[in-house]
Structures are given as structure tokens and as C-alpha cells.
Amino acid sequence: MKRLFRFCCVAVLAMACAVPLVAQNSVPMTRMGGNMTSPQGSVLYGQLTRMPNLSKIRKLETSRFAEKYEVFIEQELDQVNKNAGKFLQRVFVCHRGFDRPTIIVTEGYEANRNGAPGYTEELAELFNANIVVAEYRYFAKSMPEPCNWDYLTVENSLYDLHNIRQTFGKLYKGKWISTGISKGGQTTMFYRAKFPDDVDISVPYVAPLNRGIEDGRHEKFLAKEVADEKSRQIVLAFQMEMMKRKAELLPMFKAHCDAKGYEFRLPIEEVYDYDVMEYSFAHWQWGLPIDKVPGPDATNEEIFKYAIGILEPNYFAKQTPYTSFNVQAVRELGYYGYDMKPFKKYMDIKSPKDYMRRLMIIEELSGDKFDKTLYKDTKKFLKKNDPKMVYIYGEYDPWSASGVLELKNKENIKIYVHPKGSHSTRINSFAEPQKSEIINTIRGWLEE
User: Fold this and answer.
1) Which among 224, 229, 238 is positioned nearest to 292, based on CA atoms?
2) Which residues, given as ranges, of the chain have pLDDT below 50?
3) Which region, left, alpha or beta, applies to residue 85 given φ > 0 means left and ψ of -120 to 50 means alpha?
4) Which residue among 78, 224, 290, 307 sits deepest, i.e. has the most Cβ atoms within 10 Å of its Cβ?
5) pLDDT tens profile 74-96
6) DSSP label of 186
7) Which CATH number is 201's domain given?
């Protein structure tokens, strides 16, 4: 999902200010950090080492939990073809107490940020919970070797989660909450549909449900629905200025890409066009200040400096670290399209249709067809069922255009849209009394 790749990994979650649930037998929080008992003296460490499907167990520093470990769990590459082999998937275990609720974080990408000493999640702070983080298959340390793209499917990723839940459910027998952000939020949603009894509660953050490689709803949202007309015109005017100044800005763009060593599947002139069209999505997704957008009086240098800080071209480069996502987007996750009509006379591209296959996918997979089965099955599940789920969206986030906002007449499925919110919207983004309503709903479910 769009530049969501880069920003989602560095977004800082707002810490909870509500009083968490505290159990009598929880591990004392004074044992956090470097003064913690050695792993060999830890009950949790002993339990982890006795699990036959876990390996490479490594203690990590933490300032938020009593204990924290990086472990690797053995997974089937494919649930249908058991002869495909196995791979090791990275998992982080952040421990507060065996009697506490447990959050399973369904990461959609790599999980490098989750290993940082200060890492936590909003729900873990709100409810004093453990965290089990599942790095997504085919990312970072969870990349199978050799890489066979046939086994990178959502269904296989959900079996990964199911195995993780069964494994760590032997340690943590309390309530389980699944949660994820963006593509991780999608994964939370798909996981609930595939294994509805694995968790008690699901909290997908800013999760789209796309119906095609170019879904179609995002272009209309950006052109006519997001924010107000004046703000939309400021964003459009900036894009138009970049196109009008293409002759002056393109050499700067090319020099930047050359210095970074980027290689592209299309000519640099066309990559520039896509980068300009990308701006409106990036602006609203991340809630950029409208008063900081350069106007027509800005110099070429000012415009380029502002634009390149938001529109880093590695998004379109062959060197992108998100090839795995692009493969899934083309096959079954879907994505968004571009409206080039306002800029057509300035552009080198003839049509943006099917741009992902031409620009963002490895050549040997460019012929893969999009399968709507995942979209249809998830819609069907949500329509016919009513699991305990809380969806969190931002009103100005373009991904909300392909969210599940249309769900009606559900007792348990709750959908909250933060006014003027972006892709960084979290529970703590909401004002009272809505914030307390969300927290108390989840707390009530945990206490049932």
C-alpha cells in the first residue's frame, strides 16, 4: 500500500494514558531492561527452549516489558504442498505475565522496528498485555531460501499466524487480541476470517479491502471527497507546478536518482510523472500540513527539496525493499490507480493503467493475474458474521476509501473514523468521549 511502506515502519505509536488492567500475579515491571534476571533463570526462557519448533532464541533489551526475546518458528512453506519444504519465521515475544492478555501483532512487512528496546504497541499499553509479533513471510529475516514466489500467498501467511497462535497459546492462556496497522491491519482482518476462533478480539488499524490492482475508489476520493475544495486545489496546484516545471526539475530528479543508484523499469521521464501523481495520495495519507505546500512563487530548488522529502523515488525503483508486497498487491491484495487527466499535456506516459506490472513488479511475475477471491471471501465473512472487532480509520486517509465503512447493523463489529485523521490514526488519536468508548468496549470484552 503506497508509501505506507516507508512511513508505517517509522511511525511512532501514541502511548496510552488510560489506566491499564493490572493482574495480581503479573511480573513486576521493575525487572525491565538491562537489570533483568539472566535468561537461564527465567521461567519464560525455559519454556521457549523446550518448544521443539522454536530455535535461535535470543534475549533482547527492553524498556517496556519484563522480558523480551527474538525467536524463530519453523513453518510450512505451503499448506497444500507439504513437499515444498519449510522456512524459519521471526517472532518477537514481549512478556509481562502469563496471566495477562496477549496481543498477536500481524505485521504486514518486516519487523525490524519491533526489536527496538522501546518498542511497544498501543493496545499493550492500554491493557498491560504481552505481545507476540509475527514478521510477515518473505520479508527481512523471514525470507525463505531459496525464494519461490509461488508460496507467497495470504492463505499461507494466515496458517503461519495460526501455528504461532497455537504454539504460544501453550504459554499464554488468557484472552488474545490480534492487531496490525495498514497491511498488518489487512492481515488482522483476513486472519479473523480464516481462523475466527483463534483470537477473542481483533483491532485492525487503517486497513483497506481492495477489489482490484487499481481499485478505482481512491482517485474519486482524492479528487472530490477528501478535506475541502480549497485544500484539494492547493495540492493539485502544487502537482501542476511540478509538471509545468518539468524541464527544470527533471535534471534535478535524475541527478538525485543517479546519486542514490536507483534503477527503474521505465524511462526516468515517466518515473517523474508517476512521482508527481503520487503526491496527492502521500499528502493526505500522512496528514501533511496544507500551509507547508510550496506555492507558485517558490523557487525550483524549494519545490524540489519539498517534493523529494516526501516522494523518494526508491518507491518505484528496482531496489525497493518491498518487492514482496508488490507481488501480493498484483496477485490478491490490490492497490490504487492514478488520475492523469489534469496533467496529461505535460506527461510522457500515455496511460497509467496497469502501472504496477510495468513499473513495480519483477519481470518474471508481471503476467500474474489478480484474483478477487480474497476480497470476496472477506466481504462475505464480514457480512454474515459479527465477531468482536474494532476498526480504526482516519477520515482523510485515502485508504479509508477502500475500507469496510459500509458495514451496518452489527452488534460487535465497531467502526471508528477519526475526523480529519490520517494513516497514523490510532485509538489515542480520538477525543473524548469516543476514545473512552473504544477502550471500554475492548476492556469489557477482555473481562467477559
Assistant:
1) 238
2) 2-37
3) left
4) 307
5) 999 999 999 999 999 999 999 99
6) H
7) 3.40.50.1820
